[in-house]
Specification:
Blueprint lengths: L3 H18 L7 H37 L8 H11 L11 H31 L9 H20 L11 H41 L4
Helix pairs in contact: 1-2, 1-6, 3-4, 5-6
């Protein structure tokens, strides 16, 4: 037997689910209300999560535990407080410095990460012996991997006009890129359909008790 709070939670979840689905008809106040509640709850959740899981253990706990050894943590703490100054019109210019440091650091870290994952690892994965496969399917897959990588890179070679014989690898590269984009899009659609099935299952089983 479900308690009152459990029943109330099911009906509330069903209400918000139907409010989101109502956007399929047209934009309406129910959808906007559900959207704003979702955004607000998400922002509040991540705020509490960051405070209790990141700021307190990684900043305050270390400063209180060993102030002398972790005094350098006062620098990111000051930069974080400077970002909050953006809320005040007269001091919002001070928030540009921590923002610039954060954007520059993030860009540098992302550059190194993508350089390693998208270039070095891709080159390493392509430099294989195509005949080293144990089965015919693996050998064909190795050839397709090398062909797709080389032709895909050649498609972005703009130093020479791609015409004549140079147009052939470019066309092959386009086909490989389209197949890759299609597979990515298909995976995204499958993920969204999975979410839809989960919501419909909730409405029909937990709420309406039909299934």
């Amino acid at each position: 037997m479900l308690s009152f709070m459990q029943i109330f939670g099911i009906w509330l979840s069903a209400l918000f689910t139907l409010s989101i689905f109502s956007f399929l008809y047209k934009d309406n106040p129910f959808y906007k209300f559900a959207e704003q509640v979702f955004v607000g709850l998400s922002a509040a959740y991540w705020l509490v999560y960051i405070i209790h899981s990141i700021i307190i253990p990684n900043l305050f706990a270390k400063l209180i535990g060993d102030f002398g050894g972790n005094a350098i943590l006062l620098i990111p703490a000051a930069l974080g407080l400077m970002m909050l100054l953006r809320l005040h019109p007269n001091t919002q210019w001070l928030s540009r410095y921590p923002m610039a440091i954060m954007i520059g650091t993030t860009a540098a870290i992302s550059l190194l990460r993508y350089l390693k994952s998208d270039i070095l690892f891709q080159v390493t994965a392509t430099m294989i012996n195509p005949l080293g496969g144990e089965t015919t399917g693996e050998i064909v897959g190795n050839f397709l991997l090398i062909l797709g990588t080389v032709c895909g890179v050649f498609f972005f070679y703009y130093s020479k006009k791609q015409e004549g014989i140079y147009k052939v690898p470019s066309k092959i590269g386009i086909w490989f890129l389209m197949i890759s984009f299609g597979a990515t899009f298909g995976y995204t659609v499958m993920a969204r359909v999975s979410l839809l099935i989960g919501r419909l299952e909730f409405l029909l089983r937990d709420w309406l008790k039909i299934i």
